[in-house]
UniProtKB/TrEMBL annotation:
Keyword annotations of the record: Acetoin catabolism
Domain Histone deacetylase: 29-339
Entry keyword Phosphoprotein: no
Sequence similarity: Belongs to the histone deacetylase family.
Classification of source organism: Bacteria, Bacillati, Actinomycetota, Actinomycetes, Propionibacteriales
Protein name: Acetoin utilization protein AcuC
Amino acid sequence: MDEPAPTCEGPAVVVFEPSLTAYDFGPGHPMSPLRVDLTMRLAAELDVVSAVGSMGDVGSVGSRLRTVPAPIATDEQVATVHEERLIEAVRRQGRRPGSDADAAERLGLGTDDNPVFAGMHEAAAHVVGASLEAFGRVWRGEALHAANVTGGLHHAMPERASGFCVYNDVAVGIRWLLDQGAQRVAYVDLDVHHGDGVERVFRDDPRVLTISLHESGRYLFPGTGASDDVGGPGAEGYAVNVPLPPGTGDGGWLRAFHAVVPPLLREFGPEVLVTQHGCDTHAADPLADLELSVDGQRAAYLALHDLAHEVAGGRWVATGGGGYAVASVVPRAWTHLLAIVAGAPLDPATATPESWREHVRRVTGATSPARLGDLDPSRPPTWRPWERFNPDTALDRAVHATRLAVFPYHGLDPLP
């Protein structure tokens, strides 16, 4: 029997426990779990979240965002999206890393992107369970907003691991919402890489609108997500892709976001808004070529918060994603995200605590930024509204192509 539609009353929560950092591909891999630990430490020291476990005496009872524990997803829950042979292979590789290597590699395991590690199934299922907890709390009305910064593993496919992603926690969460009776779920992916796995799972389902803003696949993994990729038969217009040129900065990125995301969300009217916040769009990220600042990323988080309240009754599930400037970018970006989820945004001029910077120096040897933002506080990011299409710019041509490809399916005028 379907659960009743949520009443959408309750506090905001973050789903986290330190054991989630066991999702660890090993030394030297770009997706270090240290980025999650540093995020939660910074957020706790700024009283955005309540402290948990090994983080010690940081945070306080006055923290804005309550931290709740994460269950481990069952095999049956993971199997709502993933094939049994993948689950079995992940479990087998986690017990005997490197066994049957050829068969594992055909499923995306044991590659440079997805090295196998002991306990891999349990670690990946824990991330899925954390996202399911966030989805469940929002759908049942126990929380208005919920976040899982360890989630957002958007590349995993039903039949294989891909791009640092073993299981697709976001797709499992959206599938769960549909199974509870949700009829309209919107997913907005802000990672620098195309959200190909989530799109693949739902590309034939008009109940799910997926929107991905990313660096063009002509230049970056996974090589997909063109403007004319609009969804499968019967669901045309429900997969939306905005492939941006390398070098796009705050102004261009926010121009693209506002030209596509708000009008589609307003027309679609989702019951729940799900967002993925890979912060590898930042200029300092070592794996991609966009040029955003933390301030620009924060501007998008604020816009999505407001859109959740405008179009989805406030029901918002936010996840992490990519981000490989482990100490300098990810903790600041996601602390802003958590503060916005809590309903108490932080000023980018806020100083990062000296105790946190000292911890970063001790564990990484690096010097971390002294403020939560990158820009001069008197000059926040700005963008030009989509009032006139400029065919001489690659960014405008990409956005225009997306609007032409998708907007008519929703009864929207694609022209400025």
